[in-house]
Amino acid sequence: MKKTSATLVAALCLFCSFEKAVATPESRAAVLFLLIEPGARAIAMGESYVAIADDATASYFNPAALAGQSKKKINFTHSKWLPGLADDLSYEFLAYSSPLEGWGNIGLNVSLLNLGEQTRTDERGNAQGTFRSYDVALSAAYGAQIGDNTSAGIGLKFIRSNLADQGAGIERGKGVGNSFAADLGFQWRATSNFTFGAALRNLGPKIAYIDASQADPLPQHLVIGTAYEVVDTQYHDVLLSMDLYKPLIADGSFVSNLFKAWADDPLSDEFKEIDLHVGGEYKYGLSAQKDDAFFALRAGYSLDHDGELNTPTFGIGLKYNRFQIDVAYLTGEDTPMQDNTRFSLNLIF
Fold it and tell me: What's the structural domain count of the chain?
């Protein structure tokens, strides 16, 4: 009988690649690539972006932030995955957003985690050819104003996880799982320079691969955050942001997970599972017309208490006319993603 030993390797690489330790709630979930946050600007600001999300990545971070965007936007993000440990692993993200006059705004995105080429072997370790593994999600989102200073949004996504083209040993079927999920978003602009945002992500049924009785939950989570524009002048802008991230992963249905996740463990442990993300951005205008051209410096910090991970982040951005290029650099220790660089290209038209 043939066995696909590389499937386990691919899955293990996926789990180990996140800034979450195996003892955290995320270790109980599947398709953890849904937790990879796109956009080099957001990454450079410590992933504190739920109250900002003013570009095409809003369909991922907070669909409510799509509302009010007056131009069509495109974002492409690229990152090598597990740099230094694997050469052919990468993360790609492509998003598009557009206003619909009188209706609100829509957003579309596709995210892909390429796990590279694997070698299939039989039970004696003899090579039996190769196959490719990947995870992909296709999303569509809608956001609209629901009040003078508030907006709401919803996103729907289809998820496909292709770890292997057949089962291992005596298992039947393929190492392929499909699921779907929804994201809900809210944004409130309390003042001209203070914004509150919230998003509930990955609400969906469990995903199964070979054995439907052994399905795993999606990485459901809640993010709330704020953004405060400290300085807003013609040539100088300073923006500060903070997000709180809470996993909501339980063994029940996705409807009950929202409540069960808080009841599974003592309340003190539940609060320890909350991650803190903070960030800041300074923009220097290169044009008399605001936001037409600028140079940006960014920095952030991500604190994962239960995962015992502290990740400083840094980045730069340059915008001229319709083009914006952002670069983020992740530091930190004892994480496979340390010393990792992400690139984003944004188009506005």
Answer: 1
